[in-house]
Every structure is written in structure tokens, then in C-alpha cells.
Amino acid sequence: MLIGCPKEIKTKEFRVGLTPTSVREYVRNGHQVIVETNAGAGIQASDDDYVRAGAKIVKTAKEVFDAADMIVKVKEPQPAETAMLRKDQILFTYLHLAADPVQAKGLIDSGCIAIAYETVTSERGGLPLLAPMSEVAGRMGVHVGAYHLHAAMGGSGILIGGVPGVKAAEVVVLGGGVAGTHAAKMAVGMEARVTIIEKSLDRIRQLEDLFGNRANIIYSTQDSVEEYVSQADLVVGAVLIPGALAPKLITRELLKKMRPKSVIVDIAIDQGGCAETSKATTHDNPTYEVEGIVHYCVANMPGAVPRTSAYALNNAVLPYGLELANKGWVKALGDNKHLRNGLTVCKGKITHAEVARDLKLDYAKAEEQLAA
To answer: What is the pLDDT of residue 349?
Structure first.
């Protein structure tokens, strides 16, 4: 199979779909790899590094899309990229389609086979290709939140860990999954006063065991969200429903009750965000203010630390990418139900139930598309 890796073009996205290490593994398995020139510049991987790994370097993204049987990326295809996709071509990347009807239409119209990292599952019920970026985003969420609490950045002027004799910041983490847990770990490490609000009782028990008395673990209800968010200096939104739009836990009315100049970091923005007032931003212009509350809603947070996040992502994606390349998409998805759960668009049909529901589009079962 011919594998293609274009340079990412989303604003300030420095990650890359294939590291030289991954290229070498594809080549070792008998595949060809083409990489757009300078695709690895953000992780300090030169074209020569890719050539040594066995890749061929091409000058443009169009050459990659025109030739490759499978495109391996990081972020969802931008409109210019969607327009280059073709019928039966495999696209393996993050999609986050439930919040992006324009991208969905482009993928449907292309006739491609689009497999989303974020809905591939594991035997243990986790999301193994989403987890590494959730870990990065969770940790970053507290860092950037602490920075934007600075008065010079429009925040309330509170030091997240306080100092002796002065109270530390109140940090509320909405959701106790992978991103939320890593956010809480960072906030606890920075000596903030931390509350995690979580819906699953089983997960609450796990969090209690993990954090002990270092964090306050609260069952999620409308009352508890309102009580703790209204008193927070920093809120990290880390709520996830796989494939679906994030629930709007923070309403505009709740914003009015929050402490002035407090900060919301909405990690869930890829899935529409968990605040009613959230809208996607970029690393160029990461924040805006609504009702006196600073919103940080960058949709590709891990892109700011590409050397860490690209290698972490490649480590997770590589076994699944090799399975697709070695077997072909039909057999690979037929053999592996967890990889099949990532199939989101197939030959003009939406094959993920939650995506179809949120976009109000027709749904076709993945198994039916494979059989066809």
C-alpha cells in the first residue's frame, strides 16, 4: 500500500501524522510512503530524516493526495484537503465530525473511507488513540489556565498555588476521564484547591482511590456544577461522549454567577465545547471574554507541544495504521471491531450513530458498508 503524509495546515498545528520512526515501520512491512516536504519541521524532523527512514519526499499536498492509498494525518482535513480526497481513499486521522457539518458534507461527497482516531476503542473500553492527546491537553489545560489567570492576560490576578498565608486558586475539572484526570494531577501538583465533577460512580470511586484527600470528587448534577463552577477561579472542561457533541454544562446564566475574570479552558471544544458560550479559537488568538469570563477554546491544544504530542500519537496510532495497510481496510475493519468503531464515513454514508444523530443525517451500519 502507498501511505501518504501531508503537512498539517490548521493554524499553528505543528504535529505530523507520521514520524520518521513510523515511516520506517511501514517500509519494513513492505509499504511505500510519501511525505510532503517540511511536514516534520514542527518536530525538528528534516526531509533527510524521512528519506533515511525510507520515504519519498514530494513538493505538494496535492501530490500526496493524488497518489496515496491511505492518508495519515493529525487534525481533521481542512476544506482544501477535503476537496482533494477521492473515492475509496482511506483517511486515518482525528475527525470530530459531530461539531463540523461542513467537513462531514465534504467527506460524504468525496466517497472516501474516513476512520476517526477518537472513536477507535479498546478491549478495556477506552479510546486508545484519543488518550495520548487527552493526556497532553489535560496537562496543558492547567498550564494555560494558570497563565491566563494573570492580570496581564485578562485574568483575575490569582496565583494558582497561592503562597503561605494566601489562599490558592479554586480549580474545578468537569469530567474525570483521561483529560480530566491529567488536568487534576497538574492542578494538585501546582498546589491548587481541586474539585473534580464526574457522572460515573465507578469512575468516582477510582478517582477517590487515586487522589485521596488531595482533590474533592463530586457527583455531577446541575446543582453541583452550578455550586462549584460559580466559586471557581479556573474551570477545565473535559467532558466527553465518544463521537457526540459535548453536553453544555456551563450556561450563559451560570457565567454571570462566576467570579469576575475567572478562566474557562474548554478542552471539549473539538466536540463543540461544554460551555454554552464556547467557540473554537486558535493559538494565534486563543481567548475571548463573555460576561467577564475569559474563555480559552483552542481546538488543537497539543499542537503547541508537537515534539511530545506527535511522538505520543504515533506510538498509539502505528499498530492500527499497519493493520489497515497490511490487510486492506475491508479485512482490517472486519477482523477488528475496535478499529471498526472508528469508521465514521464510508463511501458517502455516515457510519457512526452519534455523529449521524447530532448532524441529523442518515446512518448506515459499518457492518453493512463492509458487506457491500
So the answer is: 94
